[in-house]
Predict the structure of Zinc carboxypeptidase.
Amino acid sequence: MTELSDLTHIKVVPEQQGLRDGKQRRQLRRRLPELIELERTLAESPKQFSVQVSASIPVGSHKLPIYRVDVGGAPADRPALLLLGGVHGLERIGTQVVTAWLQSLANRLRWDEHLAEFLQQVRLVVVPLLNPGGMYLGRRSNPAGVDLMRNAPISAQSPSTFLVGGQRLSPSLPWYRGKLDQGMEPENLALQSIIEEVLPGRPFSVSLDCHSGFGWRDQIWFPYAYRRRPMRNISSVMALKLLWEQAYPHHDYQFEPQSEHYVTHGDLWDYFYKRHNRAASAPWLPLTLEMGSWRWLRKRPRQLFSREGLFNPLVTHRHHRVLRSHMLLFDFLLNASANYDSWLPTPSEGEWLRAAARTHWYSKGENL
């Protein structure tokens, strides 16, 4: 039987190719409907979509694919946007939001010639479900019990919160980093390969990793998580924040460094960002969308008694509202990436933007 990892640039996805028997398909429809919906979207996608399987994750009798979707044909000297969802298996809404935007993009490409031409100017890469095994099992971690967002080889320079900041005590406890000498998990290695293939040589890049978490507002986080100091490209983050607020002054996102909330070991985006900076001078802005789940809990407190309800909107109309509410942000990031040379700060602008960022975000911290 053909292995999923042998399939590259497929247009008919594994479910339609008969690579799963009836029992496997029924299990996936019940336990991982996000994968079925994604595969249906990809199987019906227009010619501008190119699909690869970056890795296959074994879970029981399944080999669950990590799909990478490239849209358009922008050359290597154009900017890039990377979208990601499903890092934590409990946070299904992240994958659902990314897939909903992919569906919208696929449908628009069937009639919007301007959009098709526009996608020749920016490289769009989407990984809607990085942790299919964890989502199938209904856990935050991957099937090995490792929290993928605590698994990178980078340690906190400031004191981190016990457990939440990452621990190596046991995979039975949350926020497990994995064994010290084991290296990164296959899901993270697949993501690293995508980043190292897509980003180098480009004049500008943005990524957005979609999560849900506790909070009253939707938040957009940026590095660092391992220390309370500004990142190298903090002036560009401030410029992007101002650009968004000028275009959409009534938005409901809160921009802030992740370290504003807690300091952690093993943060993926800290590690990839620092690794990229050692080899490239062009800016890359790795952002994280944290959808505030407290609003869903406030309106339906009984969700507190459900693990899924802690991280996902369970009422239909509220779920639909969340799916559509972030499409404007995704469209904005796509357009901002393509037109980076119109707003990215010059060296002189960067100086005052960096000073503004330090005052705005780091005035209570160290190294101001």
Observations:
- The chain has two domains: 1-16+40-71, 114-122+139-250+264-368.
- The first strand starts at residue 49 and ends at 59.
